[in-house]
């Protein structure tokens, strides 16, 4: 790659908005910041599209495609995902700062029957993401017989509140889905259930029938807040219309998808007969969310949602100003020029009113004078020792005579305090005996 195509800057971002404007670009630039297009995220209150992601790049693609909420995972392409790192969460939160982010709490791949130590790990992760500003958490716990573990789930929910809580597809692994629904609905604080309708894909006729039943159960169950049924697995641009046609009449409000696939990595050297045990496309591939898939699903959803719940239009792209060039340090103005009328402060885009908007550039500090020899040093010190003028007025130097000094000394007396000085009592010898 030619060096002239790279652009670096060490200037720190002024705020999270500036960070997002530089990160939300069609293809993230891994070598430095540069001007880009950003997405204005608009929450759609009528219908929610949730996309699960496991990287900043996938999060950007999902939001640009029209996702309302992100389920943040780690290792999404391997075993369904695990708890993401705090570093990933913070970077996605900075980059997609207006998107709602829920994090999966899953200490490992495999089943959903956890040891006490694993539950303690889940509790610590919930506390950490809660403190970091997550919108919600996603987890699911079953006992050894395949029923919802009410005791452990209740403990995790209490730790998570007031965040939203989603019971994930551990629900599909339960031995009896009706019993699982009843147990979950009796735990205060659970917001939604992510389910494929008990099948591998939520789009099969059998799964859609189960999802209809769950939607009706959720609507008829008396709880503080109605449980939301969130269908997921197998939903994509070619299947989403069937899902919407079947479930919108039963109260469907949200869908979940990954819109992801393995893409080739940028690694050119690949050692023969070596790998890290993933196998298949994931051995040398990278899991990425497809922005086009998300956008297609978003458009189909917006067309299918009833007119009285018509969502706000899909987010639009907006050009942002390029990174400003560093300005050379100007010499101090001459005294006769100091009375010139100051112009209004300008924003980074060149419009007035930067101070009111809180986006004014920080003033560039002036260089300190440097002395090359002792004589110049003395001159600099003499200039710095001169009285400092304020508001353009020169300070008046007052000569004090001897009488005035005496008067000042009389006025400057020690300040009395409420605490009296202790009196020293002389003790006679007879008294000591």
Q: Kindly, what is the distance between the CA atoms of the first and last residues, rounded to a whole number of angstroms?
A: 98 Å
Could you tell me the strand content as a percent range?
5-15%
Give a short account of the largest sheet: 8 strands, parallel
Taking pLDDT < 50 over at least 5 consecutive residues as the criterion, the unreliable ranges are 1-45, 309-332, 334-367, 388-393, 427-433
The radius of gyration over CA amounts to 33 Å
Q: What is the number of E strands?
A: 12
CATH architecture classification of the domain at 22-267 and 287-319 = Alpha-Beta Barrel
CATH class of the domain at 22-267 and 287-319: Alpha Beta
Describe the 3D structure.
By secondary structure, the protein is an alpha/beta fold. The chain has a domain at 22-267 and 287-319: TIM Barrel. It contains 13 helices and twelve strands. The strands form three sheets. It has an eight-stranded parallel β-sheet with strand order 8-7-6-5-4-3-2-9, covered by helices on one side. A two-stranded antiparallel sheet has the order 1-12. Strand 5, helix 5 (150-160) and strand 6 form a beta-alpha-beta unit. Helix 2 runs parallel beside helix 9, helix 4 packs parallel to helix 5 (150-160) and helix 8 (240-247) packs parallel to helix 9 (291-304). It is globular. It starts with 15 loop residues before the first helix and ends with a helix. 29% of the residues are buried. Mean pLDDT is 75; it is low at 1-45, 309-332, 334-367, 388-393 and 427-433.
């Amino acid at each position: 790659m030619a060096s002239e195509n790279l652009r670096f800057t060490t200037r720190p971002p002024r705020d999270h908005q500036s960070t997002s404007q530089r990160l939300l670009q069609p293809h993230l630039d891994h070598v430095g910041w540069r001007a880009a297009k950003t997405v204005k995220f608009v929450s759609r209150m009528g219908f929610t599209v949730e996309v699960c992601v496991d990287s900043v790049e996938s999060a950007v693609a999902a939001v640009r495609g029209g996702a309302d909420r992100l389920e943040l995972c780690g290792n999404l392409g391997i075993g369904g995902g695990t708890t993401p790192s705090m570093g990933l969460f913070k970077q996605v939160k900075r980059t997609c700062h207006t998107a709602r982010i829920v994090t999966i709490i899953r200490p490992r791949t495999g089943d959903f029957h956890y040891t006490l130590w694993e539950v303690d790990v889940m509790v610590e992760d919930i506390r950490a993401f809660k403190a970091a500003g997550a919108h919600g958490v996603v987890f699911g716990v079953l006992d050894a017989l395949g029923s919802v573990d009410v005791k452990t789930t209740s403990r995790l929910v209490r730790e998570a509140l007031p965040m939203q809580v989603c019971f994930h597809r551990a629900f599909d692994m339960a031995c009896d889905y009706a019993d699982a629904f009843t147990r979950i609905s009796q735990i205060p604080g659970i917001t939604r259930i992510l389910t494929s309708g008990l099948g591998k894909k939520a789009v099969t006729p059998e799964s859609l029938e189960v999802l209809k039943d769950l939607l009706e159960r959720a609507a008829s169950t008396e709880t503080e807040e109605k449980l939301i049924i969130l269908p997921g697995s197998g939903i994509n641009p070619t299947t989403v219309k069937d899902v919407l046609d079947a479930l919108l009449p039963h109260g469907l409000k949200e869908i979940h998808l990954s819109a992801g696939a393995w893409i080739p990595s940028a690694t050119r050297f690949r050692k023969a007969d070596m790998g890290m045990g993933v196998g298949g496309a994931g051995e040398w591939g990278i899991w990425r969310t497809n922005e086009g898939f998300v956008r297609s699903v978003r458009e189909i959803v917006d067309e299918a949602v009833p007119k009285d719940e018509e969502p706000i239009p899909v987010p639009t792209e907006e050009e942002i100003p390029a990174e400003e060039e560093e300005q050379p340090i100007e010499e101090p103005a001459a005294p006769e020029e100091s009375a010139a009328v100051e112009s209004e402060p300008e924003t980074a885009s060149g419009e007035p009113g930067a101070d009111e908007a809180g986006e004014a550039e920080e003033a560039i500090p002036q260089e300190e004078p440097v002395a090359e020899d002792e004589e110049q040093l003395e001159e600099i010190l003499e200039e710095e020792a001169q009285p400092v003028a304020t508001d353009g007025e020169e300070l008046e130097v007052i000569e004090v005579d001897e009488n005035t000094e005496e008067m000042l000394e009389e006025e400057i007396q020690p300040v009395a305090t409420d605490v009296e000085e202790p009196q020293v009592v002389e003790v006679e010898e007879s008294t000591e005996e």
